[in-house]
Design goal:
The chain has 13 helices and 19 strands. By secondary structure, the chain is of the alpha+beta class.
Length: 448
């Protein structure tokens, strides 16, 4: 019976039998990317509201999460991006001016209430979860929770993006966010919550308008953080999705599965031992055994001892002695054992090179230098300088590129503070920057 490994489209890629190995050759048909990106065509009705499906079956975040979990380099790369984006947390400040190089001159605000807010668990928890959804799925939904009077914001919380969907836009405005643990299945009565979605154009003005109309008390609101690079108005696509459409994520997932199957199913004979028939007649004379079964059992035990002597790490370089005689009539050796070391024709190195290439392509899609994660290859197309300077410079590039993502994550916090009357301040991240030993320190703190 054959074991067949299929891709997600149901095409057989690899097959293993007891005596054969097969693989599908050639390039797959070019994917219809436009069809895969048409998410707005599928809709679901919930309590009279038209919900725009996230993905063709309303299950994009579920499938994306399963794919991320199954590909180590993608999972680790996304977590690495989240960690260096968040740095060592945030602090409140005022931009007092700029130096000759255009760098901000920051004056730290020492108000204990604001500092405690920025360094508190609620903000740290919000940042961690919002960054998680933002990088994994392309968007994060932030819930702003007012106090009982509706005059102040009392909490900020990240709604798990896997459970949130948006209603169809009216006059170009997406009004509601529907949250349910039933997605991608259609939720029934009592299995969902509906929140007002703040206007993306000017969320602060939208919140102030609601305050003037007395619509804050007893309600909470969702601030949507989205990466607009995909041009999708409802659900932004994560940056790594390009590597998935190109097939590299699937390659990185299949190679370990292939190696596991190959190691489990291949026959790895190490030795070929040729034993003459006459040896058995002399070593185990049939007349000395009560039955054929007893003689067979004795031969099996003898062969087990021979195998134990040939195999295993403790038997490396251990000799085996065999004896034979020369026939005086024809001069040929009789009862001579011939032991030959077999060359294992299976080569897994090619598959490992393919896996390394897939890992590099995934990291490129995340705008990560593979050397930073120790994924650089020593030679070939994907080789690179793995020295400390190269890694430090790549990390600095990552920090510089994180500015926009950091601002997106800070916007709901600044709206929260502004609504509570804390104005004319800026929030900035603290980052640890790696330095060389000749500077007198292994790391330095950087405010950004």
């Amino acid at each position: 019976m054959s074991n067949i490994l299929f891709n997600k489209e149901g095409t057989p890629l690899l097959a293993f039998g007891s005596k054969f190995y097969a693989e599908t050759k050639g390039a797959p048909a070019k994917p219809n990317i436009s069809k895969q990106l048409e998410k707005q065509d599928d809709k679901v009705n919930v309590d009279g509201r038209t919900i725009v499906s996230w993905g063709s079956n309303n299950d994009f975040p579920t499938k994306a999460n399963e794919l991320i979990r199954s590909v180590g380099v993608l999972n680790t790369g996304l977590k690495f991006i989240r960690n260096f984006t968040l740095g060592q947390g945030i602090f409140p400040c005022i931009v007092a001016g700029y130096d000759d190089q255009g760098n901000e001159q920051l004056k730290v605000i020492e108000d204990p209430k604001i500092v405690n807010f920025c360094q508190g668990r609620m903000v740290r928890r919000y940042l961690e979860k919002a960054a998680r959804d933002y990088f994994k799925f392309g968007k994060a939904d932030v819930q702003l929770i007012p106090d009982a009077s509706g005059s102040q914001m009392a909490g900020i919380h990240t709604i798990n993006a896997m459970y949130s969907r948006y209603t169809e836009a009216k006059a170009g405005v997406i009004e509601k966010c529907v949250v349910s643990g039933r997605w991608p299945d259609q939720p029934g009565e009592g299995e969902f919550e509906v929140f007002d979605l703040l206007d993306e154009y000017d969320p602060f003005f939208d919140l102030e308008r609601r305050r003037l109309l007395g619509q804050i008390k007893g309600n909470s609101f969702v601030y949507s953080i989205r990466d607009s690079w995909s041009n999708n108005d409802y659900y932004s696509e994560p940056i790594w999705y390009a590597a998935s459409l190109a097939g590299w994520v699937e390659v990185a997932r299949l190679v370990p599965a292939f190696l596991k199957k190959a190691f489990k199913n291949q026959i790895t004979w190490k030795w070929h031992v040729q034993i003459p028939y006459a040896f058995w007649d002399r070593k185990f004379p049939a007349a000395e055994y009560k039955s054929i079964e007893a003689r067979q059992q004795a031969i099996e035990q003898y062969m087990d001892r021979i195998e134990e002597n040939l195999c295993g790490t403790e038997n490396a370089d251990k000799p085996i002695f065999t004896f034979f005689e020369i026939n005086p009539q024809n001069g040929k050796a009789e009862e001579q054992w011939i032991i030959t070391a077999l060359d294992n024709k299976y080569k897994e190195n090619d598959k490992l090179i393919t896996s390394a290439a897939a890992n590099s392509e995934i990291l490129f899609s995340l705008m990560l230098n593979p050397n930073v994660l120790g994924a650089g290859m020593p030679g070939g197309t994907y080789s690179g300088n793995q020295g400390g300077s190269n890694i430090r410079e790549a990390f600095l590039v990552n920090i510089a590129n994180s500015w926009l993502d950091r601002q997106n994550l800070l916007d709901p916090l600044e709206l929260y503070l502004h609504f509570n009357g804390v104005k004319d301040i800026q929030l900035r991240f603290r980052s640890t920057i790696l330095t060389t030993l000749d500077t007198g320190a292994g790391t330095t703190k950087k405010l950004s």
